[in-house]
Amino acid sequence: MADKPDPSSPADGPEPLFSFGVIADIQYADLEDGYNFQRSRRRYYRHSLVHLQGAIEDWNKESSMPCCVLQLGDIIDGYNAQYKVSEKSLELVMNTFQMLKVPVHHTWGNHEFYNFSRDYLANSKLNSKFLEDQIPQHPETTPSENYYAYHFVPFPKFRFILLDSYDLSVLGIDQFSPKYEQCMKILREHNPNVELNSPQGELLLRAEHLTLSLSSPATFYSAGGWMVKDFLSPSMSSLMEDSAKNS
């Protein structure tokens, strides 16, 4: 009788071209366990740092190291702002990331904007735009300095595009700015609720999880942001056009 294959042994076949790590919703806070907004899921605020440390240890021990790690947002929880410890908590998590032996690409979720302004994030360690590919851009499509999106090639013929799902959002910007007024106008036109943060009566679709096609309908509410084609800012549109040309 033939020996059964060892499930711990690598499967026969070609070696992967490359690998990368993904981690999301760390949502660290120095708090006892709690629940999400709907009180349907338990949150382990303090223990999330232990899980991050474990993930980093595993990535560092890989025989074939990942080329990078994608941190998909909500790195600290919004509760940090309430207790005025946002900077302290962010520093603690970022110090933990320093143990990682490969680059980290950061995206911004709604909890980043509950804690910080867009200007603060742009000048913080959560801005990983320095890791982007340096591709010449046409003067007419050069994006403005206050947007956060870029693309990079981790391996030949593979291009990653990091998009700002809060490119147009009322979160993290000056309430007296033209952009805030523009976003409020979009909200009022597409959200019939008096409470603009309520998705009641509509499909609940968070902007940071936006994966619908550009022609599909989306829900608009104030805790979210938008990347739908008709609402892309010129900077985001330029980035996507330049990326397509260089793919």
What would the keywords be for this entry?
247 residues, alpha/beta, Purple Acid Phosphatase, chain A, domain 2, two-stranded antiparallel sheet, 7 strands, Metallo-depent_PP-like, Calcineurin-like phosphoesterase domain-containing protein, hydrolase activity
Question: What is the secondary structure topology, with strand pairs?
Answer:
Blueprint: E1 21-23, E2 34-35, E3 42-43, H1 48-61, E4 69-71, H2 79-82, H3 86-97, E5 104-106, H4 110-115, H5 118-122, E6 150-155, E7 158-162, H6 178-190, H7 234-245
Parallel strand pairs: 1-4, 4-5
Antiparallel strand pairs: 2-3, 6-7
What is this structure, in a nutshell?
This protein has 247 residues and is of the alpha/beta class. Helices cover 27% and strands 10% of the residues. Strands 1-4-5 form a three-stranded parallel sheet, covered by helices on one side. Strands 2-3 form a two-stranded antiparallel sheet.
